Here is the input.
Amino acid sequence: MTRILGLDPGERRIGVALSDPTGTIASPHSVIDRKSMDVADAVRAVCIENEVDRIVVGLPTSLSGGEGPAAKAAREVGRLAAEATGLPVEFHDERFTTVTAEAALLEGGVRRAKRRDIRDKVAAAVILQSYLDRKEYPGDGTRPPDDE
Here is the structure.
């Protein structure tokens, strides 16, 4: 089995998360600093090192489902990742993931300076976990019968 890579693209940083080999649990991995790192090289290196077979990119849409400049930028990150790795890229709704990540870090008692350093990779894990959960419970959100 191989892993799935999750990306949370932002203006300055891209959060990175990885699934476990079974595709069940997402974990924060790292942050790509867009000013000091080449995004394509960084994504390619993580994919090779961790035997990734698919990439999921968070797609920031409005509450109505529309796409603005941030979604266009996320699609560009997906395009770069696909070209750099040759892997399939899927986009997944990322509404409220940064807020969810920040709330989890606050609840965990993580100090402000540390939160800033890890928020992006935690948000990437939230996006990837949501994607993994939807794959496990397709359609109406119920688990398929065990005999399927």
